Prior knowledge:
Distance between the termini: 15 Å
Structural class: alpha/beta
CATH superfamily: Peptidyl-tRNA hydrolase
Number of strands: 7
CATH topology: Rossmann fold
Strand content: 25-35%
Largest sheet: 7 strands, mixed
Oligomer: single chain
Radius of gyration: 15 Å
Amino acid sequence: MKLIVGLGNIGKEYENTYHNIGFQFLDYLCRKENFSENKKLMSLVYKEDSKIFIKPTTYMNLSGHAIRLCMDYWKISLENILIIQDDTDITLGEFKFQKNRGSGGHKGIISISQHIKTNDFSRVRIGARSPDYENTKSSDFVLKRISDENQEILENVYKEIINIIK
């Protein structure tokens, strides 16, 4: 079993924002299939073959709790987990695959590390820093709506990532 986690925040006010790139990637990857809410696991869940896709419903800063619940429930080991996150230190249109790295200040990643007691997990950091926000603090733009132009850039990134992870 593989666990693929998109990080984001639940709610209409967070849809299509830079901080929800993880959720958006899962929607793109899963062709907007309906994710079912599992309150016990604090997640929206979609299963396909030997893959489980989740969107924690705990809000970004508490994502680790939901991930730990899912790991325990499905008995998924660290090497079978992939976290998809936004990253304001990376330019929009770029991405990085990494494993066993620090949080870079990302509160969702901090929560995951605290709950699973390690940084030794794989993740895809998707660039969220568009030229529009080059000299702006992350906290001042991560909850802003993604423009149509930037959305197109992200969808091209999603296609590249999907080609790599498949």
